[in-house]
Amino acid sequence: MPLPRALGRFNRRVTNRILGPIVARLPWFGILDHVGRRSGRAYRTPVMLFGSGARRVIAMTYGPDTDWARNVVAAGGATVAQRGRILRLASPSIVHDPGRSLVPPPIRLALRLIGAADFMVVTVVPHG
Fold first, then answer.
1. Total Cβ atoms within 10 A of residue 81
2. Residues 6+ apart with CB under 8 A from 85
3. Torsion, CA 72, CA 77, CA 82, CA 87, rounded to 10
4. Helical H runs in the chain?
5. What values do phi and psi take at 17, rounded to 5?
6. What burial class does residue 1 get, using C-beta atoms within 10 Å of its C-beta: 0-12 exposed, 13-18 middle, 19+ buried?
7. How far, in Å, CA of 92 to CA of 68, rounded?
8. How many CA atoms lie less than 13 Å away from 24 in the CB half-sphere?
């Protein structure tokens, strides 16, 4: 069972606003910029982000039915700020990986402890 939705609501209203500017500078984290599929409103969501080259993996710590995931899939992509860089992401797909093999070994244990085994796999689009 991923993290409870009530915790997600609290984090969205309180924690994310405080830690948002710091998170994008930390390894394995980024700030995902996406647009509401119904509202058209711009959102910024802290995420755990892994990978290099043309592929990134986002840990879905609240499960695959989050608004941010639905927004990114509906739009076909988003952007993410990570360690001073802005990456354009495309071709999102949701993957269930009970072994958590898509993320580095130290992260697997933490995700197993919270019951998170779903990930969004995206392609980094070169700027051009």
1. 19
2. none
3. -170
4. 5-10, 16-23, 67-75, 105-114
5. -70, -35
6. exposed
7. 12
8. 18
Return the amino acid letter for 35.
V
Regarding beta strands 42-50 and 55-59, do their DSSP bridges make them parallel or antiparallel, or are they unpaired? antiparallel
C-alpha angle 61/123/117, rounded to 5°?
A: 25
Q: What is the pLDDT along the chain (128 residues), one digit of tens a residue?
A: 565 666 556 656 655 566 666 777 778 899 999 999 999 999 989 999 999 899 999 999 989 999 999 999 999 999 999 988 999 999 999 999 999 999 999 999 999 999 999 999 999 998 76
Burial 5-43 (b: 16+ CB within 10 A, else e): eeebeebbeeebeeeeeebbeeebbbbbbbeeeeeeeee
Cβ count within 10 A of residue 94: 17
C-alpha to C-alpha distance for 106 and 122, rounded to whole angstroms: 21
